[in-house]
Structure formats: C-alpha cells, structure tokens
Amino acid sequence: MGSLESILVLPVLTGEDNMDSYHRTQEFSGLVRLFHWVRALAIFALMATGFYIAYPFLAPHSSVYKHMDLLQAYIRSTHTMLGFILIAICLFRFYLFFFDQKSHRERIAAKNVLSIRAWIRQFRVYFWIAKPIHTKGAYNPIQFVAYFTLCVLLILIVLSGLVLYYNVYHLGLGGVLEPLLKWFEVLCGGLSNVRYLHHLATWGICLFIPIHIYMVVFHSIKFPDGGADVMVSGIRYVKD
C-alpha cells in the first residue's frame, strides 16, 4: 500500500501558532472516479427518458413536432442503450470493489457499519457536536449504508428493466434473457408489478440524489479534508 500514500507536509497555522502536517491518501482510483461520473450521467439521462416514456407529453403530430413521428421510439431506444451502459458500469464497478487492490479502503469501510461507536461518533460529527475523525476506510458507516442502499436500488432497476426489455424484444438478447430472468417476473407477481417496482426504485434514486449532493457539499464546507473534490482528484488530506 506504500504506492497509494505519500507524505505531503502542509503548513497550517493553528490557534496556538503550531504547524499541523497532513498526509495525502489516495482514496479512489482513476477507474472508480471515471465510472462514478459516467454512471451519474447515465442515471440522469435514464430518469429523463424514463419519465417521458411513462408520460409522453409531446405530441409528434402537432405542427411543432410534425417531423418527429417516431419520437417515442427514439426515446425508448435511447433509454434501452443507456440502460445497458449502466449495467456494464455497475458490473465493472462491483468487480473493482471486490477485487481491485486500490479499492481496499472501500472494502474495509464495511467494518465501520458493525461499530456502534463509529455510528455514534459520526452522528455527533453531523450534528456539529464533535470534530471529524478520519475513519478506517473510504466511508463512514452512514455513507456505507447509503451507498449500499443505492446498489440495492440499482440491482432492482436492472432486473426489472431487463424483464421489461425481453417482454418487448422477444428475439436475440431478449430471447436469451427471458429464461434467465423469468423467475424475477414470477416473484414480482407479473409484468405490471415489475413495472411498478421499476418506477419505485427510480423514485428511491431520485430521493437519494439530493441527499447525497447535500451531504457531499456539507462535508466539503464543514470539514475541508476532501469532500466533493475527492471524487475528482481521488486524494484526501488527513491530519497527522
């Protein structure tokens, strides 16, 4: 792990005129950061196209959209392609989490979830009662549970989306997916419930996004040891 960390002495003047030093830690690898932003863009585009598919409010035959008779088909095709891009990113992201050496700090963060002391300490930090202490791993327990919940929502969206896909496209890839995922359709109680679950998981992500952005900005302002910029540079500065 020596290649992941380097000492960077930053002179910071404290109240007692003492010099504090910080060491620089690589929190996320380049691939993790790349997939984070591509996945975020894919999710936003999927929500936009998905909501339109659910409620096609444009009228292609009107005078304004007279040359867009296949608008719904174009948007459905875009939604489908973005969905498979999201699936590919999620699969590779799961691979990095479990097997990438540079993702070791993410894996060990799971231990914080089992620590009651870590939960209490983190709640005290968020309520401005205590100063932040850099936990073992890339995430504190609240962050880890939040990202785990996001992963569960993504799994539900992917499974339900693939079921909806093979019920429209019965040949080719759809024909391969149907016998593999028919159990999920039966488990949900039919195609109508699959569609409802797809929408419900989407709204769960819609709820996650503003909370996630708020907490990242809050952490960046309140505790400037690397917040939003960590997912850009991959570097976090930790006080010695």
Which labels suit this protein?
240 residues, Quinone-reactive Ni/Fe hydrogenase HydC, three-stranded antiparallel beta sheet, heme, transmembrane helix, 9 helices, electron transport, mainly alpha, disordered N terminus, 2 domains, elongated
**What count of domains describes the coordinates?**
2
The rounded distance between the terminal residues' Cα atoms is 18 Å
Mean pLDDT: 81
- Please give the radius of gyration in angstroms: 22 Å
Give me the strand/helix succession: EEHHHHHHHHHE
SS field, number of helical segments: 9
Please tally the β strands and state the result. 3
Strand order of the largest sheet: 1-2-3
Helix content: 55-70%
Q: Low-confidence stretches at least 5 residues in length (pLDDT < 50)? A: 1-18
Judged by helices, strands and strand pairing, the structural class is mainly alpha
Approximate strand percentage: 5-15%
Largest sheet descriptor? 3 strands, antiparallel
So what's the overall shape?
elongated
Membrane topology: Multi-pass membrane protein
Main location: membrane
Subcellular location: Cell membrane
InterPro entries: Cyt_b561_bac/Ni-Hgenase, Di-haem_cyt_TM, Hydrogenase_cytochrome, Ni-dep_Hydgase_cyt-B
Question: Could you characterize the architecture of this molecule?
Answer:
With 240 residues, the protein is mostly helical. α2 crosses α6 and α6 runs antiparallel to α8. It has a 3-stranded antiparallel β-sheet. 63% of the residues lie in helices and 9% in strands. It has 2 domains: 70 residues; 121 residues. The chain starts with a strand and ends with a strand. It is elongated, with a radius of gyration of 22 Å.
